[in-house]
Design goal:
- The protein is of the alpha+beta class and 344 residues long.
- It has eleven helices and nine strands.
- The strands form three sheets. The protein has a five-stranded antiparallel sheet with strand order 1-2-3-5-4.
- It is globular and about 65 Å long.
- 35% of the residues are buried.
């Protein structure tokens, strides 16, 4: 730690370093020094150039007035420190807390939609200029799902193939049934069988071409947005910055923010959020409708939480499974109402 901080010169001496996160793409620490507090990020991907490009984008977003926490530059002007082959970045500590949609008023939901719309329009300008100037090599790809892998053998924007989903359901059912059962296993088996039946009824509705693509944050959800009081203080974790259907990020974010514990969506807040997003981004109702359909289909075919539990032995996602699994069933029944909330 002393070696790392000496690169910066103005951050003081380390007093404490407390682990905060241990994710797939990075690890985070709250670092306290004699000069204050910082967020230290260990980038597990180790791509120095890609990390530096993302840093450059957040610096430009901050200059445009968006709530981000750009990295601190060392004495040589670099925002990425490499020690023993590992990449680190130091960010200012942001006081704030995460807030789900249940804590947001309709006015705050509107401001959330406006914020994401501004992020998308500003990213389009910044990244287009970076690409035109030759600073961006374009390796940052589109969002590829919670586990970081897209559909096997398919393009990044291809919708899920129900035949692949049927095979995954059978594999997961076999894993559920071969272990001592608890209430979670009973629910998992019920939802897997239920979802298979839903897919058989709706397989003909598989989406076609993706909506308009653009530069997006890539992982916009409550755990990556810090609030101070009632206002956003910082959008964090830009590791999935890339190109994907932009309206899908808007829909996907709303589904996470405004999901209720019973597996339904707060459509009144989504309507306020979506209207503000469309105004700020310039996206039209048709683009949002297509995104709603694709995210609905994505959810219908998505079992990443069960894959983590039964295939990887990772239980971190277990608490979110009941509401997430119930959502697919409710959304299928309320399909038109959900679409209308995003497009009215």
């Amino acid at each position: 730690m002393h070696t790392l901080l000496r690169r910066y010169g103005h951050t003081g001496e380390p007093l404490a370093c407390v682990p905060l996160t241990e994710g797939l793409l990075n690890r985070g620490y709250r670092l306290t020094t004699t000069r204050g507090r910082f967020f230290l990020k260990h980038h597990l991907d180790g791509d120095h150039a890609a990390i530096a490009r993302r840093h450059g984008v957040t610096l430009r977003l901050a200059a445009l007035g968006l709530p981000v926490a750009p990295p601190v530059a060392d004495e040589e002007g670099s925002t990425v420190t490499v020690l023993d082959g590992r990449c680190y970045a130091l960010h200012p500590w942001v006081e704030g807390r995460h807030r789900g949609g249940g804590e947001l008023t309709r006015a705050q939901s509107r401001r959330l939609g406006t914020l994401l719309g501004r992020v998308h329009t500003c990213l389009e300008t910044i990244c287009r200029e970076e690409t035109r100037g030759g600073a961006w090599e374009g390796r940052e790809g589109p969002w590829t799902g919670p586990g970081g892998a897209g559909p096997a053998g398919q393009g990044p924007d291809a919708s899920a193939d129900p035949q692949d989903t049927y095979a995954l359901i059978e594999e997961l059912l076999a894993l559920v049934r071969r272990r001592p059962r608890d209430s979670f296993d009973e629910l998992a088996e019920h939802r897997l069988i239920e979802r298979r039946a839903l897919l058989e009824r709706h397989a003909h509705r598989r989406p076609g071409a993706a909506p308009a693509r653009g530069w997006v944050h890539g992982d916009f959800h409550p755990l990556n947005l810090l609030y101070r009081g009632g206002e956003p203080a910082a959008i964090v974790d830009w590791d999935r910055l890339g190109v994907q259907p932009r309206a899908e990020e808007a829909v996907r974010a709303a589904v996470i923010f405004f999901l209720r514990p019973d597996g339904t969506l707060d459509l009144a807040k989504i309507r306020s959020y979506a209207r503000a997003y469309r105004r700020a981004s310039g996206a039209g109702p048709a683009e949002l409708a297509a995104a709603v359909h694709r995210v609905w289909w994505e959810r219908l075919n998505d079992f990443w939480m069960l894959s983590w539990r039964y295939q990887l032995g990772d239980h971190r996602a277990d608490p979110g499974f009941p509401a997430s699994a119930a959502l697919s069933v409710w959304w299928t029944r309320a399909y038109e109402a959900v679409r209308d909330a995003f497009t009215d």
